[in-house]
Amino acid sequence: MASLSTAARLPRCPGTPRCALPPSPTGRAAPPLRFRGRRRRSFPSVRAEAAKEVEEAVELKSGVSVYKPRSYEVLVADAARSLAAAIADGRTRLEIEFPPLPSSISSYKGSSDEFIDANVQLALAVVRSLKKLRETRACIVFPDQPEKRRASEIFKTAIDSIEGISISSLDDVPTGPVDTFFRSIRKTLDFDFNDENEDQWKSDEQTSLYIFINSSTQDLSSIEKYVEIFAASASVVLFNLELDTLRSDLGLLGFPPKDLHYRFLSQFTPVFYIRQRDYSKTIAVTPYIVNYSGAVFRQYPGPWQVMLKQADGSYACVAESASRFTLGQAKDELLRVLGLQEEEGSSLQFLRQGYKNATWWEENVDQEESTAWRT
């Protein structure tokens, strides 16, 4: 087993331009302010602050050559900054996707409570960071009433610390008599009685942002109805739902139809997206098996990027595109930069890839009502 170090021969993605500070009209720097008889104070330069904002905007649009957040605090700040930029551009159907825990284990394989609690904390952190960038009245929407009640008990202090936040659940969506009957049975079995926190975070003011977390494939239809009834004119974020995994269940027996993607999920623009993948490839010479990892990355309004994981844990850009990479395309880009790609059109390439190199939701462009999820 071995891994390749490719830092020396990675193609360099477009770097981030630097914004120079424009000269003063007189050609000279303004003298520092002095106060007679008082302690000298320093004031932030308005021009420097404006230049910093312009530089950050240019950085977002041009993408990153290397991405290695130092902490989850940085990761959350980057997600909030991209979310703010998308909302400012008038986009209202948005997706945020990144690993909720510092582990390669999928939330479908690990402890569900750990991922549920991590996503709640991260969603609250994103709302807190977003409020520093723009005025927002957010509502966190849980899959059902028991999840909402549990979060209100565990994260009461964190929710109280954020001004203007409210919580809700998909159970607020009006349903038919059959669903109402099963919900009543579930409430009885779960002993889902109202507690003292039930109505604490309700607000009469207009909600501007709805964030849906910890939902399953079965919940996607309820999310669509919730958005139609309560959030038609508000911004909506699907937060760490692993939509690629949920899409794979659509159309199966007992799950919503594939049309749900074409009609609803295709409207959501990924504004901050990190989807990691681990691969291995057999070769004819030592070390015979090459292990490598990469990610599909997007930080709005920057381009879609394919990133190769380096030995130090950072992700280096190896390819960029204005449209979303399919998982097959992303893997091909990683193989290309590693020098492991088979000859185009060869029988070995066909045997390794098969006749399909994309999923059904990546292929059927003509059936989509929107291409926002690809841009």
From TrEMBL:
Q: Which superkingdom?
A: Eukaryota
Q: What is this protein called?
A: Uncharacterized protein
Q: Which organism is it from?
A: Avena sativa
Organism lineage? Eukaryota, Viridiplantae, Streptophyta, Embryophyta, Tracheophyta
